[in-house]
Design goal:
The structure is a single chain. It contains 16 helices and no strands. It is mainly α and 398 residues long.
Length: 398
């Protein structure tokens, strides 16, 4: 959405006016108007109305000081996400397994009368941010009382599509700072991040995507070395594509003097799976940790409970990415991997000699982590059967 003619015109009008205006209140109003225009342009009426409804209910739940109202609103937000994003999947895969004819009737009703052709734009991000907001209020944080501030938190245009997921306690002070003063350093850093993002997305990721799309359908019949090149290209594509988007979102926000949270920190240099998730899609992984994994009990419980907590948390993480079995499988794959790797690490840390020689093991742990993550990307992008077949083709040189 940052690489089309409409956005170029939008940015060409928005930023000069934002910079030239020196009155903080007018700047904030201009930013708010731009956020509304941006969201409506890409979401349309069908995508905007459900978000407006959720936003209004969340705002009033926040200022109500009523814990029951807030809890019910959290349930409403999650229910709306499930309704729009997972209804078709649930009907076809679960009800269809029980009664195919009844499922077909329900699908017809859902598609023709209840659901839009696509879920509201970025509803997963909206719901996660609204849930974070309400849960933090339940834990004692102060609500956002300004309607304008809450709207900016909800539909801040650089992050509205794919994040990073914001925490309102850090974001709102940054809005105030940006509207009061944007300096040359902010603009310089912002332009640098946007340039980095464009290079990652347009030059690297999109070319890798063309390469993968051409060869992947005939993966099993390709020369053995080429299979491995495509396997590596798949891992590099998602890194450069998504981190490129995050760079652009962070860069456009920085042009306003506003700081969004970093989302990537050289994840493919991670030496363990825990380290990888501290570096990859940081805003999502920290959200999963703080609002799902830790409330379930985290790792402060017995082995079986730790395993189930990890599987549930990352199963939800996988399902959050899309309504398909391969996403669920990918999430569970990482959940089990995290539990196993954490316990292996804890076991070996008991031995003094291993702790002293830990640097010698770094190349091995780095390679094992990167391999595990890269295999996971196959399940992320392709149906489970196709991904498994590709792994088989990587192992055996037939």
């Amino acid at each position: 959405m940052f690489v089309n003619y409409w956005f170029i015109i939008f940015a060409g009008i928005f930023f000069p006016i934002f910079w030239l205006c020196k009155i903080p209140k007018i700047r904030k109003m201009w930013l708010l108007l731009a956020c509304v225009i941006f969201h409506y342009r890409f979401a349309g009426a069908a995508g905007v109305i459900p978000i407006i409804f959720l936003g209004v209910v969340t705002y009033f739940a926040g200022i109500s000081n009523n814990k029951t109202f807030r809890t019910l609103t959290i349930i409403l937000c999650v229910s709306e996400l499930i309704f729009y994003k997972y209804s078709i999947f649930f009907i076809s895969q679960v009800i269809g397994y029980i009664n195919a004819d009844f499922a077909q009737t329900m699908l017809s009703v859902a598609k023709d009368k209840l659901l839009p052709t696509a879920p509201p734009l970025a509803i997963s991000f909206f719901v996660f941010e609204f849930v974070h907001y309400l849960v933090d209020l339940q834990r004692g944080k102060q609500p956002i009382r300004s309607v304008g501030d809450f709207t900016l938190f909800s539909i801040f245009w650089p992050s509205v599509v794919s994040g990073p997921i914001k925490r309102f306690e850090q974001f709102l002070p940054s809005i105030v700072k940006g509207c009061e003063n944007v300096n040359a350093m902010d603009i310089q850093i912002g332009l640098m991040r946007i340039t980095m993002g464009l290079v990652k997305k347009l030059i690297i990721a999109d070319n890798l995507n063309g390469y993968i799309s051409y060869y992947q359908p005939n993966f099993a019949t390709l020369p053995y070395e080429l299979r491995w090149l495509i396997f590596i290209a798949i891992s590099l594509r998602i890194l450069f594509d998504f981190s490129g988007y995050s760079d652009m979102a962070i860069g456009f926000a920085r042009l306003m003097g506003i700081r969004l949270p970093e989302n990537f920190n050289w994840p493919y240099l991670a030496s363990s799976l825990q380290d990888f998730w501290r570096r990859w899609h940081i805003s999502l992984s920290s959200w999963i940790r703080d609002y799902i994994y830790i409330p379930l009990g985290g790792n402060q419980c017995g082995m079986m409970r730790k395993i189930s907590n990890g599987i549930i948390a990352f199963g939800i993480c996988g399902l959050w990415h899309g309504a398909a079995w391969n996403f669920i499988f990918w999430g569970i794959y990482h959940g089990i991997g995290l539990v196993v790797s954490t316990n292996i690490k804890s076991f070996f840390e008991r031995f003094w000699i291993i702790n002293k020689m830990s640097l010698l093991f770094l190349p091995f742990t780095w390679f094992a982590t990167l391999t595990f993550v890269s295999v996971g990307w196959l399940y992320f992008f392709y149906p489970v059967s196709v991904a498994t077949s590709m792994i088989y083709s990587l192992i055996y040189r037939y």
